[in-house]
Every structure is written in structure tokens, then in C-alpha cells.
Give the backbone structure.
Amino acid sequence: MPERIRTFIVDDHAVIRFALEAWAQKTSEQANAEAVAASASGVLTSTAAEIVVVGSADNGTDALRLIPEAQPNVLLIDLQLPDMQGTEVIRQLRASGWDKQKLPILLMTGMETAQVKDILASGANGYLSKQESSETLIAALRHIVKYPLDVWLNPAVAKQMLNAEKAFQEAGITAAEKNVLRLIRLSNEEIGELLGISKGTVKNHVANIFQKLGITEREEAVQFAVKTGLIPRLRS
């Protein structure tokens, strides 16, 4: 029999959960077919892993309650849930003893740009856009189960992160300035309140950012922050 990947799905959209379960069923059928073919040819095992959905939830509260009962060995979770962020669910799971080896976690998002570093900092093993193909999703699930201490990023996301870091380094943007850039759509006063710094300090950071980037308008700073993945692109 092929290896079984016990998967728990958390997404508030029933259509998404149905699609994911359908993909899982497809891999199960393929894995069993490969196992039969391997056995017929005299090979004792098949390399394919069967993905089996052992539970699902449409919000974070239910997920935290049901996961210990379902005992999955991989979690697929949406970033934006009705009651809390997927990253908060991950943090609570990690804090309660579900480490990366016990429960690898792959986070999904439909946002065009996600704060990947924040996602990984929450304890996720990897990040996946909902625009990816079923083949990519299945490959990601199999990878984080086989290598739970690895970070899984698709090539496009990995390239974006490398390019972003290069852009920050080349411009000389400091960590404090990056924190301001993450909130650049807000007023200086609002940024100061959130970061616990004075309005004048924020103003100085913004001025330094403008100088380093060679820009004069706040909207240009917003565009830079979007391009580097610090903040999401607003949908029209």
C-alpha cells in the first residue's frame, strides 16, 4: 500500500474545500494504481504518496478544536478566515506542541501579494497561492511531509523574496524603515501609534525612504512596498 498523507483542510469557502478534496481523491486513486502496477512488476513499494482528507473546518476556532481529534500529519490552511488569520491558527498550534515535524503546515492565500516572511515566521512550512495548479499543490504537500524542516516556496515566490531583499539592500533601507513602509498607506500619526514611536520619528523615516528611493510622492513609496511584497496590492 502507498504511504498515506492524512490531510486536514481549513478554508471558509465550500467550493475550495470541495476542489481540494477532489484533488486528494484523484491522488489517492493514482497512488493506488501505481501501487498495483508496482506490485505486478515485482516492485514491493511505490514512490507515490496517497493524500487522504481526514477532516476540514471553515474557521480557525473549529480547526483548533478538531485537529487534535483528526490527528492529521499535514495541514492545509487559508490565510484569511472569518474569525482569525490562518497565521494565528498556526501560532496557536505551534505553541500547543504541534511542531513542524509533528504537523507540517502549508498556508494558502488568494491575495496577489502576501507577506511571506510573516507567514513563515508564524510557523508555516510553506506558502502557496490559490492560483497554483493541483499538481503544484500536491507536490508541495508531499514535500513538506517528507521534509518537514524545509521551507517550501514555489519558484515565483522565492524569486520575489530574493529580488525584494536585493532592492532593500541596494537602496539602503533599514529594518526600521521597512516597518514604516509596511504601514505606508496610513498617516504618519497612525504609523507612530502602531509602532510606538513619535510622529516626528515617522516623518524622518519617511523622508529618508524618499531620499533613498529617489522619489517625492507617498504613492511612489506605496508602489515600491507593493512591488517588493511588503504590502498587498489593493483590488479595484
